[in-house]
Amino acid sequence: MKVLVLASSGGPDYLADLFFCELIHSERYDIDTNHLPPYFYSDFAQASSLYGNGYTAFTKLDRAKSTRVNLLDTERILKCVKSSIYDAVVYTSIWRFSDHFDEICCHMPKKKIIVLDGEDHTKVASIALRATYYKRELTKTFEEICLPISFTYPSYFTSYKYIENIAKSTVIAPCFPYFKGSY
Questions:
Q1: Residue ranges of the domains in the chain?
Q2: Mean pLDDT for all residues in the chain
């Protein structure tokens, strides 16, 4: 499957980056992209410079996983879109990068344009009617035009045996997002 992944170069975005890493890791996709974050890979030396020291989601992929990922400039991306070579186009973070959206809509059907919105607000971009739109903070107001999405830690980063053997008092954090004292 040939996929165009359009991503922001503005730094880590956990939903966007975990989704992109999953595409790369799965080995089922030939990927063209406008931006391939260097912090995905185990040879990235500046993990401590990332927000939260990169947490645990970054610097996990082997650089060899990127053999099916092609970094393209804008001119080449638009030429490929016009040639209809993609099975899907994915915007990994629509509020951070939406370039070429109108052009892509001219050449691809709505069901093949996938938009991820992992922002911490309930607003929905106006393009929701023109793409398959996945929203993390989805409210009833937009549930007819958006699909829900959430994120989790990919199982290939660690084994469940390791998780089961950690001495923890709780499995899920006792946190209520609207009550800051619960953090």
A1: 2-158
A2: 87
